[in-house]
Amino acid sequence: MNRRRYFYVLLLLAIFTASCSRRSPETNFCQYVDPIIGTGAHGHTFPGAVRPHGMVQLSPDTGIEGWDWCSGYHASDSSIMGFSHTHLQGTGAGDLADILLMPMVGEPKFQAGSKSSPDAGYRSRFSHNSETASPGYYSVMLDDYRVKAELTATNRVGVHRYTFPKSDQSHFILDLVHGIGDGVRIAEIQIGKNEISGLRRSRGWAGDQWVYFVAQFSKDFETASIIENDKILPSKKEAKSPNLKALVSFNTNTGEQIVVKVAISSVSTDGARKNLNKEAKNLSFDDIHQNARTDWENKLSRIEAKSSGQENLNTFYTALYHSMVSPYILNDVDGKYRGMDGKIHQTEKGNTHYTVFSLWDTFRALHPLFTLTEPETNAQLVKSLLSKFDQFGILPIWELHNNETNCMIGYHAIPVIADAILKGQVKLDKEHAYRAMKTSAMTDNAGLNYFKKLGFIPYDKEGNAVSKSLEYAFDDWCIAQVAKKLGKKQDCEYFSKRALNYRNHFDAASGFMRGRKENGLWKKDFNPRELSILGSGDFTEGNAWQWMFFAPQDINGLIGLHGGDKAFIQMLDSMFNQEPVVLGHANDVTGLVGQYAQGNEPSHHVAYLYNYAGQPWKSQRWLAKIMQEQYSATAEGISGNEDCGQMSAWYVLSAMGFYPVNPASGDYIIGTPVFDEVKLHLNSGKELIIKASKVSKDNIYIQRVTVNGKPYTKSFFTHKMLEKGGEIVFEMGPKPNKKWGSSQADRPVSRAVPKGLLADENRPSLFMPYTQSENTLFARERNVKLRNIDKKATIRYTLDGTEPAATSTVFTGSLRIDQTTTVKAKAFREGFEASPVMSRKFIKGLFNNGHKYPKLTLNTPASKPYNKQKAKILNDGELGSMNLRDGKWLGFSARETKEAQLTIDLGETKELKNVSVGVLVNTSAWLFHPVQITVQVSEDGKNFETAGQKDFPVPGGHPIIHINRSEYSLGGDVARFIRIKAHLVEAMPDWHLGAGSPSWMFMDEIIIEEDTERLQAKK
């Protein structure tokens, strides 16, 4: 090739390379990222080295106890206990921090020590002034040892570089006991001449987590020892125990550097070794650091933002960085990974399997952001969710390292999958995907049994009932849209109807979503400012103010419930303008603007709702305030838990000027842009350019908008519109333009059900009848009075077990019953949908209602603090509820007794029909059903015969909270004394967070029924 042709080839190559680049050569987006942002206050982020969605999150641990140490690091600390390889990004619960490595100089120590006394262990003091953190890199000076620590990473390998002083006592401790909020099931260590390998299998928030590792050092060990229970095992190079560490030692010269490459795997040490050899074996620390930076630069350059404000760029690009940390890669380089069924699986060629799905948070903004910035990754995330369905039987709720944590509420894998399908961004078997969605929505878990039957969840039957109903309704709307796309008309109608169920919690009198019983009666003593937390109260991490606006699938319907635009806007105004005071305590409810809580997810869409009611300028006002006050380029710069990218994704989208109020609708509601210009590089190769003329801290109001040079008056964009690329120009000003986007034609529309889809969409339904008294037990006779909250409804009933029909007997006055009877009732009214069936079994039994007999004696004392309660509550004719704190349950702990025993003296011999025993099952609260219940009878109180015995399996996972009443037929046995024996679950099963610990049993009413038929026959 001659010189001239060679020159032209090089020139063409340079032009081609420049044209294919996502960014101009002079750009450097990593410079704007500060991983320290969010490590203070309650952000719960970590500052260490990670690749985009990398399996390894190599970061310093400053603490492992307490809510603000869920990620292992907090900016308030001044000492480091070591550098571990797995971390959670901004969660509200802690786990991980596996495979801790820490250098030491001097006398070796085997415990970390404490923050108050670092010298007591291998922990070292440090100064934040010596820290450097950037995408894919972290370094700090460990002051106590004069060792500089540097960290970088590949996807599956954590790479350390330590610069030592001169010493003949330089060491590393590799600690497999260390972890956040977990306990080691088993650990394994093998030591070679310059390598440590093994396993850390733990139980924590993730019930069964496997982390195999291979750690290769750049220098052979002078000495190496295995430590078990903080004692050196002489000459041993292999060990297996729950309490293992390794100590390796070196002689070092001044400035000598030792590099450690630590690969991990969920499959095997062989898998970890393959990961190390493939990704890091022949590369230096600096090579890997540069590759990590290049990876991040390519990801961050998908959005080019321009601003005169440096802090805005720091906040924005750090948020974009945080949004790309999780979910994490789970499979090894050969495609193998450990699945949710505990088995080893193989990914299909070209696919990647991911873990850590904080779906209650991330369905709102993170996954919709991915559909714009990295749809190829989002497609793999969707496929990962469907693989988890295949392994687990339902879609995951909050999946962590191939474990279902059952944390939070809803089934929010569904909007993620639905959005990808509806946007056409993922190639998959849609029938399979739909089956996964429908199956997950048709279980009876977490109140769904009531939601399907009643159209809402009663507050006295399930914790967080209101929040669950609202979120199920949205998820069901997503299913309906996919059913419509697939031509499943009947399913579309069914789930569309369920999408309207949110309305059953709306109280028109107060304007709030409220808890109610199954009969429709509202919960008393309602205060909209009162907070409740996950697992108790009516709401999940919030109050009625923060949850009243969650119906993203039907905002127009919600406006109608409030009485129209004016009333709806008044409620929004009231929310933002009142004092930011809440009643009660919930760590997650932070970042308050009035009652709006930016620090937690239920509020995230609310500021955009003014657009639907014709006042988008108010959205612009509040969004500017939220972005300016709740986010900053400081350690405290995130107002609440970062939550695996959701808090950051909210800011990224909002700063560009729009947000997906309904994250599966394909609509983005316009807010207020922050930057002079944003250029979004789309996967199609097109560019979306968003300009904001005259934008500033004060110029927050949209004056007018053009799209590709043409006036645009609508207050929303569609995904189809954005993915075409082009240019959007906002003209900004200091005062609102109240005409822009306000007309009915320019507003976004959100209706759960298109007109005409459901013939009875607006046909009201009746709530089931109820009994005036909730107690269904009686000793002699009972007058049953039926009521309905609709005074105009007619109640019809049956006593023969059949379902009431429109021709059944009309209830008037009261029903007198003198024997065990099942009453079924239903409400009817013309023009209304008939109510669900009320079914109540009224049981006539032998109860101690103030008389001498029956007399109940505990042969086994109740456990503290229940031993102060009188034993008679077990036979007082009053049933305990599913609220374990209602004072009607007697508790027994397997720590104190293996078998609970009690005896009931009836005072005289009687002919008995059956005995039933009630037990509350709430395994999340450590309340298990006994494995065996035995009923014995006696005439003299000395010689007992077994009349019935039942065995109960220990559940393999958390069942629905319920009261189990087991019956034992006595068949007319004549007895005066009854003895009950209940054998407790002595140690909770391996899947439980408290595995190995003693269980509790909560017992209530012992119901004894006489054989009335025989008595009547004798008479």
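The record above closes out task 2.4. Task 2.5 opens with a second protein, given below.
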Amino acid sequence: MGNERARILVVEDSIDTNQYVQDVLDRDGYEVLAAFSGEEALEMLRTETADLILLDVNLPGMDGHQVCRRLREEESTRSIPIVFLSGAYVGTEDVARGLDLGGDDYLLKPVMPQILLARVRAVLRSREAERALARRNRELAALNAIAASVGQSLHLETVLEQALERTLEMLDFEVGGICLADEDHGKSVLHKYRGVSSQFVAAVRGTHATDGLWKRAMVNGQPVFLDNRSHHPVMTPALRQEGLKAMGCIPLKSGQRVLGLLAVASRQYETVSQRDREILVAIGHQIGMAIENARLYEEEQRRRRQADTLREVSRILSTTLNLDELLRLVLDELANVLRYDSAMVMLIEEGYLRVASAHGFATEESFEGLAIPVGGEFLVCDVIEHREPVVIADAQQSERWLPHPQLASARAWIGAPLIVKGEAIGVLSIASCQPDEYDGEDVQMAFAFANQAAVAIHNAHLFAETQRRIQELALLNAAGRAMASTLELEDLLLVIMRQAIEVLGVEAVSILLLDTASGDLIFKAALGGGADNLKGRRLPQGMGIAGWVAQQNAPLIVPDVGQDMRFYPDFDLDSGFITRSILAVPLIARDRVIGVMEVLNKREGRFGADDRQLTESLAASAAAAIENARLYTEVAQAKREWETTFNAITDGILILSPDLHVVRANRAMAEFLKTTPQALVGQDCCRLLWCCHDLEAQTLAERTAWEGKLRLDEVHEPRLGNRTFLRSIYPFWGAQDELMGMVIVLKDITAQKDLQAQLVQSARLAGIGELAAGVAHELSNPLTSILGFADLLIQSEDIPQSHKEDVAIIMEESCRAQEIVQGLLDFARQSPLQIAPVDLNRVVREVLRLLQRQAELAGVVVEMRYATDLPWVMGDARQLKQVLFNLIVNAIQSMPNGGMLTISTSYGPATTRQGKFVRVRVRDTGVGIMPEHRQRLFQPFFTTKPEGKGTGLGLSISLGIVENHGGTIEVESEPGRGSCFTVLLPARLPERVD
């Protein structure tokens, strides 16, 4: 360093001496600063810098030695040379003390100018030599640090990052960058840069290697340095725009091969010094070797990753058998083996190549509709045909490239066959957006990878097939368990449909049953979109895909319902569900079609033969379930009818075990014994009826069992209300002629005995008894049914409490019906009517409340029309209620398939009688009455109902009650269109009674 740039601080309290020293130094070209105390010097050095300090020892306040100590304690002033000036006598101890405190020299005043300048120059030269040595050491250390830094990592990006940072830090340059050579395309690629704008980066990125600057640096392998006087057609405008004054470009070599370029630039220095140039060249050699090592390492790592990836594919065979997961892993691992921008796995399905998995496509357009015939004309078909990889440099230049929008950016392409046991199952498609991307080594790697992937895919297919078979068996087993656990048809079909949706992967399932009378198909059960709107709907005979399947007794797959004329779209319009594809199979039971099972819209893929086979198995289970449920319903109905009949019999009945204990008792027997039927079960019959195991009772039972025939006798039982019974004892036998038990019937004949005692009134009482018995029989059947079913329902745990409260109302009203029976018996005994004002509107409402449920179950819609201000009639409300009860029950029973029941009240003159009458009309839309039966409607015991369904006494009794009230019943009927019964009662009250 020359003295022209040195700055010297003079610290002297004497103004004259201070000025003298300043003048001497100034004439020699130094820049001089002046301070007159130690405190002022310290304060000045906080903001100013100095290359040398001339320090007086004897200063006011803080002396020179103290100032020196303070300067050496501060980091910013510690390295500034200090020369002491002393005007007093200086001994050896004073000099030693000053030098020990950090001084560099000691001068005595007065000092001659030549001596002063010589000492100043000597100190500055020594300081400059120290600085040069320190700088050289720092440079060597920096070079070592750079070499160590770039040598610590074998990752190329890390090497470049560290090299650039260390170089800029070492040489104090603001701007820098590293370009690497792209030998395939003759360009340099800017990898790392610091301190420049994006416009500058764009100007130099991708510059062709034949351009002058790069040609000299990269092609010729020579360093290039630019300054303000240089003129480069490309770089100079960019340098000046960035404010750069000097730039150096150093080739990064490995041997004689140029790998890239290190560039540094400064906005401060006018040129790159020779020392910096030498350092840059040395750094370039270090970076070049580090780049080569990193590339060799990365190449080795790439090959190792390729081998590891192939082993990973093999590992996948034992870690996952899920096809979707496997295909994803295959394409993920492929990226570690080969460079690609997009890749696909295409598998052969039913003679077509379809995309099973894809990576790297920019748009969201689906490959779902892409299906390539295996023997087609496209390049991918050659891979299947020859079972060898196919590679092309630029796919877009080939007329046989697949014309799909998502494949428009593909250039270089490899197609590797997926081969298992010599058979091609698909193609691994690998594409790059750059042409000429792949070489022979890449093709071999792709082929090896595809072989590994093919084995994995094949195993996944086998596993999926096994799982599907297991699921099918599980589904069939579940259906079998459901059939064994319940005979409720709806519950069973729900289980089957849920299993079908899960295993088949469909959106909806429906089961239609055949109505043998009309030939229509009725939706019995459905699950999925819009299912609630389908249940109970009818599909006309032969209509729709289901209708075709039922008629042809054959399964049918429709992949696109929009292309099939048999599809019946009305149900989609009503339910809002959109049907795309259907698999329908017939339900067959006892060699006849009883319905159709449909599965709709497979979520993934299309319906195939496996789906059809599984659905047929499910349909077989469903058909068997339906038949079993029907049989169960018939048996349950027969059981209920038997129990109803058993409890409806007015004679007391006990069913006994062989040891004479009660197995079952009917309601009449329980009433005789003032208990419940359930309480009688398990009791000893002899003790129950005869109060002890007396010899007579025991002998009677044993003789009956031994003789094996009916035994009749008449007994008088004080315990049973002091009544007389006709006792019948019946033994019954098993299939092996073993005694299964006995039946005891107690028929109450007390009334008969009393009638026999009243010979005078026998004829009349016999007629009345016959009528009473007929009335009791007519009413006891429905009454017993109501009470029986109500009792069963109220004891059931399957209905909610709110419904039990409704059943309790039914039982309460049924008990009131018993009072009506008693009233009829009273009438038969000619007991007087209980005449009072009666509101017929109220009577109709009460009867309808009792029969509302029966009408709903029969599918009958009831319409009520009440006349306002209807006059009241004089009569017996209980008997009039029984009349309306009989008429409404008959009307409901005349409509077996449902219909309309209209009940209306009115007031006015009659067509057949004088005066005004209150009318109650009961009109139905039932089967009507044949003309030949009209004259016999009100005859006792005449009925058109099937045997066991009626006694023929209801209308006869009803007419008798109405006539006793001074009225009549009129009938209008037309076969097939319904009937109308009109009850006419005289209006004997001018107005309503409050």
